[in-house]
Design goal:
By secondary structure, this protein is of the alpha+beta class. Among the domains are: about 35 residues, no CATH class; about 110 residues, no CATH class. The protein is built from six helices and nine strands; from the N terminus they run ββαααββββααβββα. The protein has a three-stranded antiparallel β-sheet, with no helix packed on it. A two-stranded antiparallel sheet has the order 1-2. The chain is elongated. This is Reverse transcriptase domain-containing protein.
Length: about 220
């Protein structure tokens, strides 16, 4: 089964309730008048009128019943020092306009980072694979690097530092929970796990790093 509306497997397009609700909403707003059969039998019109209260009831049932905070402690950023964490927290309360990076402006036009059907090239669908890439770090080819948006723990084991020839005295212990190493926000990178692709702005346009699906599955 394949749904062309969601571009995913699991149900047929004709069975997609979300698509049907979207079409009904567009009809009510008057956007699809030329597609609506005004001469429809009375029974069909009555059926639609009967379905409307049921749809409203279903929408009401989907309203949240409460709030559950799953993260019980720790910090997102600010470092290991308590004063630095407090200063970082105060920054989030200050309503200030932050100028966006101009690095994307090439030739006077700003390039937009987007993903399309062409980005599925070489990707076997459907899949639930992580984005695993190979990068050149300190003139070493570093393999099996996991790219994520912060939902997973980024672990770099000691033998990786040993192979990078980074002495142990340059490693500093921290007491706060591990956030990550790369700083994806500073890189302005956007990751699409479905496309197994990461895109980021450069002075020459949009750069790409594609994940290795075979390595990810191994």
């Amino acid at each position: 089964k394949y749904c062309r509306y969601h571009r995913d497997h699991g149900h047929d397009t004709e069975e997609c309730r979300q698509l049907k609700n979207q079409i009904e909403d567009l009809i009510r707003k008057g956007h699809l008048r030329k597609y609506v059969d005004r001469d429809a039998p009375q029974g069909r019109r009555e059926q639609r009128r009967e379905e409307a209260p049921r749809q409203q009831e279903e929408q009401q049932q989907q309203q949240p019943r409460g709030v559950i905070h799953t993260i019980s402690g720790g910090v997102a950023s600010g470092g290991d020092d308590s004063n630095a964490r407090k200063a970082y927290g105060r920054q989030s309360l200050a309503m200030q306009q932050v100028p966006h990076s101009k690095r994307l402006r090439t030739g006077g036009d700003e390039e937009v980072i987007s993903f399309s059907e062409a980005d599925y090239e070489g990707v076997r669908l459907p899949h639930d694979d992580p984005v695993v890439v190979t990068l050149l770090v300190e003139l070493f080819t570093m393999k099996r690097i996991l790219i994520d948006n912060g939902s997973s723990a980024d672990i770099l084991y000691k033998h990786a530092f040993d192979q990078l020839r980074i002495p142990a005295d340059q490693l500093k212990p921290v007491k706060t929970p591990l956030v990550g190493f790369a700083g994806l926000n500073l890189l302005e990178a956007i990751v699409s796990t479905r496309h197994l692709l990461m895109k980021f702005p450069t002075t020459f346009g949009v750069g790409e790093v594609r994940g290795d699906q075979e390595v990810a599955r191994r």
